[in-house]
């Protein structure tokens, strides 16, 4: 399930900590980076490699919103709709994503290009509305601006 490269990297991470559980978050990140999501088999493999109970691995991986438990598009859009972003037009941006890309919250476009996750807060209230595309941060979004930004992601 885990590539040799991932196993080597996770073992290096594990070596930095006194307790294997402490390496759980970075180990899960390694697997998600490689596969794009955390399958049940991947969660089990991480538990086996770290000698951490599978229930603990699943509990950690489902607690944090940064981990995905279903296949995602090539690019992950995380759009904030908290109060500040909502007041500044995030709902209109969701409508643009629906109409232009056929992208509903918690779904993936039919071509597999984008997945959309609505976020509670990404910490950019002063420059709302804001989003992440993969690990790229964008703020002060407008309806045309979001379209222009997404056109750069193929």
Could you explain how this protein is built, in words?
By secondary structure, the chain is of the alpha+beta class. It folds into two domains: 4-63, Orthogonal Bundle (Arc Repressor Mutant, subunit A), CATH 1.10.10; 75-150, 3-Layer(aba) Sandwich (Glutaredoxin). It is 45% helix and 13% strand. The protein contains seven helices and five strands; from the N terminus they run H-H-H-H-E-H-H-E-E-E-E-H. It has helices spanning 4-14, 24-35, 40-50, 54-63, 83-87, 90-101, 143-150; strands at 75-80, 107-108, 114-119, 131-133, 136-138. A five-stranded mixed sheet has the order 2-3-1-4-5, with no helix packed on it. Strand 4 (131-133) and strand 5 (136-138) form a beta hairpin. It is elongated. The mean pLDDT is 95.
Compact overview of the structure:
With 154 residues, the protein is an alpha+beta fold. The chain contains 7 helices and 5 strands; from the N terminus they run H-H-H-H-E-H-H-E-E-E-E-H.
Please supply descriptive tags for the structure shown above.
7 helices; alpha+beta; five-stranded mixed beta sheet; 5 strands; Glutaredoxin; 2 domains; elongated; Arc Repressor Mutant, subunit A; single chain; 154 residues
What does the secondary structure layout of this molecule look like, with pairings?
Elements: H1 4-14, H2 24-35, H3 40-50, H4 54-63, E1 75-80, H5 83-87, H6 90-101, E2 107-108, E3 114-119, E4 131-133, E5 136-138, H7 143-150
Parallel strand pairs: 1-3
Antiparallel strand pairs: 1-4, 2-3, 4-5
């Amino acid at each position: 399930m885990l590539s040799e490269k991932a196993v080597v990297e996770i073992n290096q991470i594990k070596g930095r900590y006194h307790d294997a559980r402490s390496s759980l978050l970075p180990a899960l990140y390694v697997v998600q980076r490689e596969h794009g999501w955390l399958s049940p088999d991947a969660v089990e493999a991480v538990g086996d490699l770290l000698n951490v109970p599978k229930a603990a691995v699943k509990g950690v991986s489902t607690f944090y919103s940064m981990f995905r438990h279903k296949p995602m598009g090539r690019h992950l859009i995380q759009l904030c709709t908290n109060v500040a972003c909502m007041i500044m037009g995030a709902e209109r941006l969701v409508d643009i994503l629906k109409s232009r890309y056929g992208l509903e919250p918690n779904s993936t476009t039919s071509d597999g290009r984008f997945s959309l996750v609505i976020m509670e807060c990404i910490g950019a209230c002063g420059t709302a509305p804001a989003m992440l595309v993969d690990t790229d941060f964008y703020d002060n979004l407008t309806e045309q601006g979001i379209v222009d930004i997404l056109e750069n992601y193929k």
